[in-house]
Amino acid sequence: MGQRSAKRREYIEYIAEHRRNILRAWAEMQQKCGSEPFVYDDWKFSHLDQWVREHDLSKYSPEEFKPYRRWFYPTKREARKKAKYASAFEKAWKHHYENNPHHWEYWDGKQAGHDYDPFFQWLCYVEMVLDWTAMSYKFGGTALEYYEGHKDEIKIAPDYTEFVERLLRQMASEQNNPALPG
């Protein structure tokens, strides 16, 4: 197997691992945030559950897969020319957050009551917390620590900041933390 094929498989495995970690975070959130409407309300739960199962599928798209793979899993030759691939990666990242509303960048600049359905945005912020939690399983720390360390850069709509921070605190707590598979 050639180096490019090996790197492609590594990246596919990374995406699969992240998607498994999203499911793990969702199971943890259901335990820790059981009093939240997106857990106990069947209609809200079903919407969010479907999104969780479809999380980051755009990473397999032609717009994202190759630029992401070259950036995060480059061959030796590609690693020597990383600067050459920077603009393609930036374009892929922009495609990703513009097509995945669980990223705060998707919401940056949208006006309250004009550009979105508030219920939709609310669920997207839940998925954002799941995303950060899943990343913490891979890279360490907690989603709350990530947020605290990047709070000045992250732009969350003021109407949702308290909600997001509450979820992050609930997820960081040890309360109702069942032994989850690694």
Describe the structure.
The chain has ten helices and no strands. The model is unreliable at 176-182 (pLDDT under 50). With 182 residues, it is mainly alpha-helical. It is globular and about 50 Å long. It has a domain at 3-56 and 100-172. The longest helix is centred in the N-terminal third of the chain and has 30 residues, at 3-32.
Arithmetic mean of pLDDT: 91
| Largest sheet composition | none
Measured by DSSP, the beta-strand proportion falls in under 5%
Characterize the overall form: globular
Q: What share of the residues lie within helices?
A: 55-70%
The number of helical elements comes to 10
Unreliable runs: 176-182
What is the H/E order? HHHHHHHHHH
Chain-wise SSE layout:
Layout: H1 3-32, H2 37-40, H3 42-53, H4 65-72, H5 76-80, H6 86-99, H7 104-107, H8 118-139, H9 143-150, H10 158-172
Helix pairs in contact: 1-8, 3-8, 4-6, 8-9, 8-10
Features:
182 residues, globular
